[in-house]
Amino acid sequence: MLLACPLLLCSSPALVDSWQAKYLTKKTQAGSVEAIRMLDEILVQLAASVPVDLMPGEFDPTNYTLPQQPLHQCMFPLSSAYPTLQLVSNPFQADIDGLRFLGTSGQNVSDIYKYSGQEDYIEILESTLRLSHLTPTAPDTLGCYPFYQRDPFILEECPHVYFCGNAPAFQSKRVIGADGQDVLLVAIPEFSSTQTACLVNLRNLECQPISFSAFSAEAEEESEMDISH
């Protein structure tokens, strides 16, 4: 089984600006520093037992334009000591047990959602797959590095699993290509708001959500209210 869960250090440009201002203020620590420290502690527990690939998101501390470069290992002094932790780019492609996984943190899908009439993330994901292009709206409305001779976002081979992160809700779909390719599409929900990750069965490509809602802030508040009563 493979567990997929997008982690977002910052969810909006406004927070990025405010953290930057705080970071430049003496005797005040930026919120992003504390967030990365907490993430490092979580990654230590995961990397100690399973391989972990960490992909940056839209507002994380790396370059903004696609492809985003991996987060620097100096930000994770504890977990980076484990060889099982791999800091990867966005988009990211990997071969796992003979299966090709390809995906992004979701900017390519959310940008199409903003500027088109399509309202279903999984259908947008399928459209980009059939177009054989990860970011069809770049560089018009989605920032990307100005490549000169080769477009790295063109799909040269069909993946077995194609995913996007930070979707509003979990969705999955199996599609068959023109040449008989069997592809699992997965829209991985934003964990900070849904507390949901995804499990993929590598044997039959079945996918199901797994909820950690018991650890949400709302659940903690409700439990405190129950105790007080």
UniProtKB/TrEMBL annotation:
It comes from the Eukaryota. Residues 24-170 form the DNA polymerase alpha/delta/epsilon subunit B domain. This is DNA polymerase delta subunit 2. The keyword Signal applies. Residues 1-18 form the signal peptide. Belongs to the DNA polymerase delta/II small subunit family. It holds the Pfam family DNA_pol_E_B. The keyword Signal applies. Keywords: DNA excision, DNA replication, Signal. InterPro entries: DNA_pol_a/d/e_bsu, DNA_pol_delta/II_ssu, PolD2_C.
